[in-house]
Specification:
The chain has 192 residues and is of the alpha/beta class. The chain is built from eight helices and five strands, in the order βαβαααβαβααβα. α1 (14-25) crosses α8 and α4 (62-75) packs parallel to α5. Bound molecules: adenosine monophosphate.
C-alpha cells in the first residue's frame, strides 16, 4: 500500500494531478472538498451545515472531515493506496489520519507540496469561477482560503517534515510537466 498526500493552496492543481496519478497507479483519490460538494449537491443535513462555512472560505469541523475520510477508506478497500487531496488541513486531522492508517497496518509514505505563487492562484481561481461556477471561487472567499491555507500549512507541514517525507513540486509549470515531476518522485518510492 502506498499513501500520498497532495498538499498545496487552493487552485494549486491538486485535484487535476490527483486524477491523473490515480488512473496511472491504481491509487484512490480522496478529496474532502469533493465529498463535501457532493453532500451540498444532494442537499443532505451535513451538506446544509457545511455550505455556509465553505462559501466563506473557512474550514468545516475536524469531526466531519475525519468521519468522511474513515467511511471512504472502508469503502475503497481494494485500492493500492490513497491520494489524500485537501486533507489533512489541521494537526488534529493529521493525527487522526495516522491513527486510521495505523489501524490498517499502513502509513503516509509521502507528502507532495505543490508550490504556486498567490498571483497565479488568483488568476486560476478567476478562470475556474467562469468554467465551473464554484460558489467559493470568489475574490473574497479566496482571500480567506489563502489565509486559512497559510495557517494550516504551518500547522500540518512540520508534522510531516519531521518525518522527512515532504517533497516540493513546482506547480507553476504546465500540467504535463507537473505530472512528470510527481512521477519522478513517486518512482523512487512507490515500488518499495
Ligand atoms: P477544497 O475543494 O479542498 O478547496 O475544499 C473546499 C472547502 O471545503 C474548503 O474551503 C473548506 O471549507 C472545506 N474543506 C475541504 N477539506 C477540508 C478539510 N480537510 N478540513 C476542513 N474543511 C475542509
Amino acid at each position: 500500500m502506498f499513501n500520498v498526500i497532495f498538499f498545496g493552496p487552493p487552485a494549486a492543481g491538486k485535484g487535476t494531478q490527483a486524477k491523473i496519478i490515480e488512473q496511472k497507479y491504481g491509487l484512490k483519490q480522496l478529496s474532502t472538498g469533493d465529498m463535501l460538494r457532493a453532500q451540498v449537491a444532494e442537499g443532505t443535513e451535513l451538506g446544509k451545515q457545511a455550505k455556509a462555512i465553505m462559501d466563506s472560505g473557512k474550514l468545516v469541523s475536524d469531526e466531519i472531515v475525519i468521519g468522511m475520510i474513515a467511511d471512504s477508506m472502508d469503502k475503497a478497500s481494494k485500492a493500492k493506496g490513497f491520494i489524500f487531496d485537501g486533507f489533512p488541513r489541521t494537526h488534529a486531522q493529521a493525527q487522526a489520519l495516522d491513527n486510521m492508517l495505523k489501524e490498517r497496518g499502513q502509513q503516509i509514505n509521502m507528502v507532495l507540496e505543490l508550490q504556486v505563487d498567490d498571483k497565479a492562484l488568483l488568476a486560476r481561481i478567476e478562470k475556474r469561477a467562469k468554467e465551473e461556477g464554484r460558489s467559493d471561487d470568489t475574490v473574497d472567499a479566496m482571500k480567506v482560503r489563502l489565509e486559512q491555507y497559510r495557517k494550516y500549512s504551518a500547522d500540518v507541514l512540520p508534522y510531516y517534515q519531521k518525518q522527512d517525507i515532504v517533497f516540493g513540486i513546482d506547480g507553476m509549470r504546465p500540467v504535463d510537466e507537473v505530472t512528470l515531476q510527481i512521477e519522478a518522485i513517486l518512482a523512487e518510492d512507490i515500488t518499495a
